[in-house]
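Handout for the seminar on molecular recognition.
Each group receives one record of this type.
Step one: identify the two inputs.
Step two: read the structure output and locate the region that could contact 26V.
Step three: write two sentences on what you found, then compare them with the reference statements printed after the record.
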Amino acid sequence: MPPGATVDSLRAEVLRHLSFTIAKDPGHASLHDWRMALSYAIRDHIVTPWYASTRRTWDEDRKRVYYLSMEYLIGRVLEDAAINLGLRDMAREVIEGLGVDFNALVEDEPDAALGNGGLGRLAACFMESMATLGCPAYGYGLRYEHGLFRQRFEGGRQVETPEDWLVTTNPWEFDRPESAYTVGFKGHVESRDGRDVWVPGETVTASAHDTPVVGWQGRWANTLRLWSAKPTTLFDLERFNRGDYAAATEPEQLARTICRVLYPDDTTYAGKELRLKQEFFLTSAALQDILRRYCYTHKDLGRLPERVAIQMNDTHPAIAGPELIRLLTDKHGVDFDAAMDVARKVLGFTNHTLLPEALERWSTYLFGNVLPRHMQIIERIDSWHRRTYPRPHFVGIVKHHEVRMGELAFIMSHKVNGVSALHSKLVKSSLFPELSALHPDRVVNQTNGVTPRRWLNLCNRPLAGLITETIGDGWQADLDRLHELEPHVEEAGFRDAFAAAKRANKVALTGWIKDRTGVVVSPDALFDVQVKRIHEYKRQLMNVLQTIAHWHAIRQDPQADWVPRVKIFGGKSAPGYFVAKEIIHLINDTARVINADPVVGDRLKVVYPANYNVSMAEKLIPAADLSEQISTAGKEASGTGNMKFMMNGAPTIGTLDGANVEIREQVGAENFFLFGMTTEQVAERRKDPDHARHAIEASQPLQDVLQMLAEGRFSPDHPDRYHGVVDRVWHHDYFLVASDFAAYHAAQAEVDAAYRDPARWWRMAAFNTARSGFFSSDRTIRGYMQEIWSTESAL
Ligand code: 26V
């Protein structure tokens, strides 16, 4: 808690902001006005540590980490900032004392959804952990006017509408129009005095907006700097006067489109010019800012690596390599070889996906058109690499008239990392086998983590309270201390308290589900949750097929001793991803039929609340009994939702994929419902061209489910609606839904058996929390600091 803060002083600050910042009278203030007033009052308490951290970093000339990411999936800020400052309970008391509903006020804040999914949420967790650990850092990103679209269901189908988080004032950002840089596109390259000079054909101005990110207990705060695009020239007055109004506003149009909207597809690479412009806009502005800050107090650019570490969050900012070379050579007169040496010491690259369709590569035609100077530099990097590391056949960046961003990022970095042990192994052996052989020490692993402040302490107050009661305070920033819960797991009293905390969250969720979906569910049922982006490799289809099989089994024998279940789904599909949208439709159709079936009643319910986002995750995860992590082995790089469920005491049903492998190692095999093929078995299985048919023929339940789908049992209005789905399972089952179905079905039966035995179940659940310390993003960031950034905490 900030020194001297009391309920009275905070109330006075809220009222002062209401009067003088918002200019509203308490008698006439809306919920939104109160939220603004409280946000400004809380923000004031962040500014003090923020100044202090920034000043210390300058005074001590510390090395800074620069995290470059096209996405930051932040969610709401108010309650998270308040709890980190130790002001949350005080804020609640103040607000309720003023006659305002605190929960409603918190929920009035729109989510900052500047990201698609895992990659963007990881960036947000990393920012919070860097602040908690006192690692001097800047996050650089784009200030999208519209974040990830809002999802609605119409007749069970996903419909997208634009998201408008900036329609109301964002109280957390500070505009810094004085921090502005020119970013160019297109044009041509000229040779002047023997030097190549890029003459862009278009320019825009990048203007900074800073948001402070405060760590646990307010001991340190870093900056998230998001760029917006402004026209370099306001408009062409001469053209305007001539009556050419459209042409006069061209610069404005270009600027407005750049940060207009987040690309909502994280599965297929599309090769769109605007996307390349966004990536370069972020990267160029960031690098210019970084060099300006460095040159403010240093002369020798050769020593840049002593003070600067730049991390590329996937290949999206991989243009940082050539852009840094351009700035060093063309602008600062450094020679090419020296520039290469500096760039490669400064840059690090994190890979987040092995899916071939998501790997960025640009046609040399488009790339050379938008960034002609960078195209030249990339060719020079390629020949430098070929010269320095001769190989019999070509390994490099430009191949088949494409610029391959993964290879570019690899070559320009001193370290490349995967995001789980299994994934890093695959990055080395299957994604970059030749480059890894040439540079054997380059690929390292940094297993992902999540911040326990948001994902346990804030979102699960009942469990956080029990943990503090049991092992004392301080675990929030030292999550390995959760191991101290282990001896208590054997005590029936502790397990009862653990179950009671879970039940409180489930009761709260039942009310919310009723409001959102109209479906009444019982908190006595097992809450089985799969929430994540909808993608074939994540196999939501397998889950819904198994749900149908389970429903069918209940109908065959309604009087048997069924463990009641609620199947909860959440997630968005990319707008153009037809197959994923069909799966969404199927889940909704299935829910409609099952929920209306009087034979089944409370034994099985299916709910799919629309518009899954960070705030919804904060409600669903603490109330989950079972975590679904069922991707085809080798496809999920890590997963981070899996870690959040574990922390909140939900055992996993899952495959040996991504970080599931490490979760199982930590929690113990007996506390994890494992099923399915391994990465190697998947590869083996695919060699059989009839793998799906063989699997279907061997499983009566799967045959029955596919038969029901084909007959239109879930789409009576359109009996042939799911013929495509059925056909794909039979004939194009790349992700092996059929081949893993029987094992999954059996594992679900094992879950039921465990749930029937409360002592066994709550032991498992509590061990999941007690052994989740490894998955704190603090551990992850310490790993990056030591093994990639060579940087130290300032605390
Ligand atoms: C690719 C593209 C292609 C161009 C259009 C926009 C766009 C946006 C994102 C991506 C790549 C997304 C990769 C990703 O989100 N990977 C996830 O990263 C998580 C954090 O490391 C990890 O836990 C998930 O397993 C992994 O799928």
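Reference statements: The chain is about 50% helix and 15% strand. The chain has a mean pLDDT of 97.
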